[in-house]
């Protein structure tokens, strides 16, 4: 199964090798910039130009949580390997760490001077790497 998101505001799961669409999700009001399966495989997260991050439950075939807090387009998203946290990177110059259990932003990471274009948790750690239009990479320990 492959997961994609696009300018049509939709995410899709595709079965391979046939290439048929298995599921489609709608709810964002602007382009999708990122999409990622939860490590357990039962949910996914998407980020969008509409400034939101959304969590989707594949068995319910719908959005179960919309995370709001960025003031500009969200450029990327990812899951922590434990499945309890989502990270987002935004054109507003910040990144956020979201606790999906409490449904709240746990940390806002500030320090880049321009759009944060990507974010990724290092596997099995509390370290996040971000890349920015300010031509820097930053490593963050989200515990501190």
From TrEMBL:
Pfam families: WD40. SUPFAM superfamilies: WD40 repeat-like (SSF50978). WD repeats lie at residues 25-66, 67-108, 109-144. Keywords: Repeat, WD repeat. It comes from the Eukaryota. Coiled coil: none annotated. Transmembrane segments: none annotated. One of its GO terms (biological process) is axoneme assembly. GO terms for cellular component: axonemal central apparatus. The keyword Repeat applies. InterPro entries: WD-F-box_domain-protein, WD40/YVTN_repeat-like_dom_sf, WD40_PAC1, WD40_repeat_CS, WD40_repeat_dom_sf, WD40_rpt. This is SPG16 protein. The gene is Spag16.
